[in-house]
User: Fold this.
Amino acid sequence: MLDGDEGPRGEVASAMAGAARAWLNSLDAEQRDAAVGQAPSDARTDGERRRWFYTPTDHGGLTFHQQRPAQQRAAMRLVSTGLSRAGYVTVATTIGLENVLDHAEGFVARFDRERGRDPGLYYLRVFGEPGVDAVWGWRFGGHHVSLNNLVVDGLLVATTPCFMGADPASSELLGGAVNRPLARVEDLARELVRSLSPELALGAILSSKAPSDLVTGNRSTIAEGDRVIPLAGIWRSPFSDSAQQSALQAASDAIDAAAGYGEDDHGALEYTGRPKGVAGADLDAGQRALLRSLLGTYFDRVPEAVAPKYDDAALDAVHFAWAGPTEPGRPHYYRVQGPRLLLEWDNTQRAANHAHSVWRDPENDFGLDVLAAHQRHHHR
Assistant:
């Protein structure tokens, strides 16, 4: 959901278009074949644009490895137009964490390719031709990053799904400092759940155990009854190397076993159109301030001019739910849900040092609602 008048949304869209054209103009024919996808629409032919991932799989597009340094810089310039300064720093840090994760794993991860943890395997693709009167979009993604933007008639109309993760979520720096790119995304939610009265906590905490991952996963659309997708299912395709595929399946099974989720647990956490948890209307002033700040850790990922704004009435309808222990360092999950809003956070894997967070608009992810209205208006 994007609030604000058409001016700011047009300014951001114009900056995106200029950066996208500059990047595309720097590419040769072979590079453009990978970099350009079909123009967005509300038809089945738009399926590839709606495929998104947060695992280290093929996200679709042109990788950094396939570009010269100047082209890589032009690509990052485009990425920056869809992010705030803080959002850009977080994404850039996440890309760099691939080197830290590689070190933590002993430089052995492969995933059916030469290097499994690879900061060069982030993919950029532009869908359609960027222009003032065009329908076009772009997607940037790789391990723990997925940015999806749509422009219609010169206005930025959709920025979701917007995924940011971190593995490791916490790592040491010199002098005793700690690198936690998503620290406030986690800490504000924990502060909120721990501030609740026993009565409110009873409604907010859905389960004593956290699910193994985001409940809605990387689905293109969200539907009633959605449940956690096993890790092995969040990849573009199976590995050609049977040993690598078996290793992935074993890791996936181990993660699910560690969560210990049964039918009742999945039922308690499954997605429903009616929000679960405690409503903003039932929170006191301090708790509402925490909830508003928590929303900011998602909305402030995009440029301020297009970030959603929630007044008190809108905050009343936002619900907050938690699963798992509330102590720091323990596996946990939370969900924030309201009209045209779904936020999910999960930090369970690697002994709760592997974080996933996503901002979604169940009614307009990938701009589908806007595209349908555009199609009706222009093709009656």
